[in-house]
Amino acid sequence: MTKREFLDLLDRYGADPSHWPAPLRLAADRALATDSALRALLATEQALEAALADLPGVEASPDLRRAVMEIPLDHPRGVTAPSLASTLLAGWRRWTAGMATVTAAGLIGFVLGYGQLVPLPMASAGEQVATDDLVSMLGDTPYLDAGDAENAE
Question: What pTM was computed for the model?
Fold first, then answer.
């Protein structure tokens, strides 16, 4: 564990190692065993927390509360209005996403609809179709063959 990670633990969870997450506490214990600077830092933080715990609680005065609440008013953040280019680009993105969706739906509809136009040969309700007959029926094309040409004459 680095010194920066150890300081982060102190800032987040305080100087009491029992409040630290278990995996981080184990890493911190290993680091404390090898680094005397980290031990001194932990002892200083523990002394500071003990000193602060002994102080009485104090309410903030109305003047202090008002001064804190006026900080954002005295130092407002600059918020810029969106530019025309960013507005158009945002609209363009929505438009292209919508058009892509519509195009995909239309293409899928066309493919499925076109598949319905090609008639497949089917047996009537009472007929039993043998496997060889079924293969020959599926192999037929909707185009006219020689037999159909003779019947058409």
Answer: 0.40
